[in-house]
Every structure is written in structure tokens, then in C-alpha cells.
Amino acid sequence: MDQNAFSKRLREAMDARGYKQVDLVRIAQEQGQKFGKSQVSQYLSGKTTPRPGALAALADMLGVSPEWLAGDDDGTPPAVPARATSSVPAPAEDAPIPQPDETPSAKGNPMRQFKKSSKLDNVLYDVRGPVVDEAARMEAAGMQVLKLNIGNPAPFGFRTPDEVVGDMARQLPDCEGYSASKGLFSARKAIMQYSQIKGLPNVSIDDIYTGNGASELINLCMQALLDTGDEILIPSPDYPLWTACATLAGGTPVHYMCDEQAEWYPDIADIRAKVTPRTKAIVIINPNNPTGALYPREVLEEIVQVARENQLIIFSDEIYDRLVMDGEQHISTASLAPDLFCITFSGLSKSHMIAGYRIGWMVLSGNKRMAKDYIEGLNMLSNMRLCSNVPAQSIVQTALWGHQSVNDYIVPGGRIYEQREFIYNALNDIPGISAVKPKAAFYIFPKIDIKKFNITNDEQFAVDLLKEKRILIVQGSGFNWKEPDHFRVVYLPRIEVLKDAATKLADFMSYYRQ
User: Fold this and answer.
1) Given CA atoms 309, 314, 318, 321 in this order, what sign does their dihedral have?
2) Residue 437 and which of 175, 271, 325, 417 are 20 to 30 A apart at CA?
3) Helix or strand or coil: residue 97?
4) Neighbours of 465 (CB within 10 A)
5) Residue 349 backbone dihedrals phi, psi, to 5 degrees
6) pTM
7) Residue 147: what are its φ and ψ, rounded to 5°?
8) Are 279 and 233 in contact (CB under 8 A)?
9) pLDDT tens, 492-514?
10) Within 13 A of 97's CA, how many CA atoms are on the CB side?
11) What pLDDT, on the 0 to 100 scale, is given for residue 268?
12) Chain segment 428-453, per-residue pLDDT in tens
């Protein structure tokens, strides 16, 4: 089955009925089928195709033949018949959809319904998605859930250094007004000096932008760069915000593969094969989320060479650059590309355990002449949001140049190091589960033997694990991984908590079959 043909015909059939993704999911649930929103999105984006049973179910819901939907029939789709198998009518494109509990308007007409923008139809962020919604429902019902889904250090006992907290408290009276749109001078000066130590070329204080976390700046960069049809290379698996922001900006994310058999390093041949005349940029996530991989110099140099040959912008996400273990050294991509235009992202959320403070930054470096107009766009969007969180900016200098408490966590005997050692061994001890040892960050991305467990839907796997063992993880498809055979674990909890979670997971896998 051709993925592109299937994706195109699926969209045609949905448009013919006026269906959105949520309509398919709802109809499937009524019929006892297992279709998650992320699964449907994977189909629509052409990243994967359904198995025969799922294909037949989709065809039945859409009133077309499986052969036509699969792209095996060159004819036109049959006329859309009235469905007898579902009580859900095809929604009209413009008319409001009546709900059973609607309150009529004063004139007795159905209440007007407001739908989300169609721009969000293919935007996913399952780190906080449907499985998390189910966990919230369970917690509201009084159940306790172990959250291994998000890299949030504070709930697991990691504290902000006292010096950072004290300096913020003392400076609060001076942080009541807006700062310059790019940020406080003291914060940007400290970031500029840190960038110089990391070897970023051609950086001045005007090239530093602070943000409410690096996430805000990623979105800003995508909005300023991408037009409809522009392509951007993003790793698979990825931190899903990159794909979501590129999609929302109107661009086309093109995922290059990272090779699990090669320490999760990017597949250079796959990157080369996916560059087209429409490609504007490449994203590098190093250290990597969700795999925990750390790329060596030779891998980065190969990626930079591809960017150089095709004159691509490099976006380097380096938020975990100070969480590197085993004596390894992090290398900033921009330090290897003085002739290219690079934007490097970092922040304090992870290294200083202050995710809630929301302070990140981006640094423009290298050949800025090739991006003069783009930089004007960045400045425009930066000005429009006025400025980032000023109290958080005020402690950047202290955090970057004071005692680096994170160093105590990432060496033998330190919490992150020892928790990594435990979870790596515990996961590999479970029959049917294997994992590559992460070298950085605090994530591991284990593989499931899907034949052993008959897994076809990784979102359903995550839901089943949540409901039976009250453990919340994120399925691999949430990171734009095309097969239903991975999931991400955050190993921030203490070892005794991880030990309990591993025991429950091993028990679950001993009997689970989808």
C-alpha cells in the first residue's frame, strides 16, 4: 500500500463526508474500534498505513471500499451512502452541531458552536495529550498516578539552588516593568559569554534573545521562517514541539531517521535523501529528547556538511547540554559551522531544575548576512510579545556562573546517574523490552517486541498501562516515530519509585496482549 496514495484518499473521503479527525475517533469508539487521534494523524500525514483490519474499519466508516482507500483501485470513490452503522451524522461544514445538553438561544435556535482552527488539525503534542487527559480523569476520581511522561524535575525532589532563589527574591522590586524585548542586558551578557565558551562564532549581545522557555522561541522561529509548502528536516523520534510548530506555521515537517542500532545517531544518508529544493532548514536535537543520545563531533560534522552543501539554516536544540554523563563532552553544532546561519536554543529549565520559572534563550551565530530579512522577522515577532519573564531573566547570570549543582547529579553516586543505571538495567531485564543506554538528559526510549505482544496501537498500549498499573508514559508515536514499538520513560523519580514502577511494568508485560 502506497503511503501517499492512502493518505490522499483518506483525506478525500473525510472531506466528502465533512469529517474531522475527532469525528472518526468518535465513530470508531461507538463501533468498538481502537483509533486514537494520534493514529489518525499519522495516517493523514502519510507517515504510516493501517493493517488490513484497520483499513477495512476505516473504509466502512467512510463508505468507501478498502481497495479504493488503499490506492489499489484507480477508479473514483463510490457515492457516499447514508450510514446505517453509526448514529453520528456527517457534520455540515458551516452549520452548528446540536448537542443533547444545548441551551437554546432566546430565539429558540440551536446554540452556535465554535470549532478550533483547521490549522490545528495535524498538530500533535502527546506529551500532554489524550493519555494525559485520561490520567487527569483518574486523579480527579482519587487515584494516584506515577507520572513518567514529562521532564519536570521539581515534583521528584530536585530543588533550585538556594543562591538562585535568593537572588531572584532580592531583585523582584526591580523586575516590575517590561525589559527590552530581547531581554535584560545582564542576562544576555551572561548568555553571550557562555556562548563564547561553547565556541559559537560571530556572536554579539544583539544576537541573544530570551524567552519564556526555549519553547516560545522555537515557535517564534518557525512562524518567522516558514511559508506554505516550505520543508524543514526534523529528527524522528523528535521533541514533538518542533513538528507541531512547523506544521502550525504552514510548513511541511520532513522527518529524517535516527538509527537505534547506531546509538540513535541521525542517519546521514536519510538526511541527504530527504533534502529537496523546498528544504529551508534542519533541526538537530542534541542531547536528544526522547532518546538521551549525545552526538559525537564526527556525526555533527557530517550533518553540517549536508547543511553547507544545500545552504540550510541549522536549528540546534541544546537544552540538555549540561546534563551529560560518562565523562562525555557536549559539542555545540554552531561551533562547527561558522560559514552557516545557526540558531542555538538552551535555557535553565533542566540544568537548574527550574522548569516553572520559564527562562530560555536562543543565540544567532555564523553567517548572519544570509538571513538578514529573516532576522528582521524574528525581531518583529520578538517585539510583538513585548518581553519574556523579567524575574526569571534576573537570575540567568547567577545560574550560569554560580555553583553548578547539576554536576553533582550526573556523576557516579549522583541521583540522575544512578537512576539512569537502574532504569536501563531494569527495562532490559523485562522479556520483550530492550533499550539503548542514554548518555545525557533524563529520558530513555525503550523498544517493545510488538510481535510478542501483538501491539498495533501504541497509544492504546499507553492507555492500558495507565489504567491497569497507574503509570503514565508517552507512546513513541507522540514523538513522531512511525512504528508502534517504542515509549519514553522519564527517570527523574528516586530509585525506590523507579523500582516499584519497573516491577509493575514487568508484571503488566507478562500477560499483556493487544
Assistant:
1) positive
2) 271
3) coil
4) 21
5) -55, -45
6) 0.79
7) -95, 100
8) yes
9) 999 999 999 999 999 999 999 98
10) 12
11) 97
12) 999 999 999 999 999 999 999 999 99
